[in-house]
Amino acid sequence: MPDPLPPKAAAAADYTSYVQRYSGSVYALSCLLLGKGERADRAVTATFAALYEPWQKESSRTEDSSTAAYRECIRQCSLLAQDRSRNVSVRLTWEDQIASALWYGIQLPLPEISLILQRTVPELKAQLRGIREQMAAVQAALPAVPHPSAG
Fold first, then answer.
1. Rounded Cα–Cα distance for residues 89 and 19 (Å)
2. What is the pTM of this model?
3. Could you report the per-residue pLDDT of 47-58, keeping only the tens digit for each?
């Protein structure tokens, strides 16, 4: 029996499923990089709009779907980021903010982050160690906050 859906409609339904599967994590990543609000919403919309045409080509589906979504989200966030220092107290570089968001924020495994950022796992481990050291140094420099005694 022939397929009742024309190829274009079937591809659109397949793409809708793809968007539903990754929209939550792409939104979380955009919020981590841009803060919640209109810029994060625009980044998500732009991410999936940019991925639609390549998705229509069969060859694009062979690439890891999550990798493509995260890479495009990072690209869109980079375009929208006006103040890259935003509210990060450590003043991480944009590259460190991305790595930190992927590892600490949405908690992807290192091999997946390696694919997304096209870096080796040892390079990522060294970068994350540097981020932790920067965060620890900032934490150590903060004044101690007295805790109220129970009583």
1. 33
2. 0.75
3. 999 998 887 776
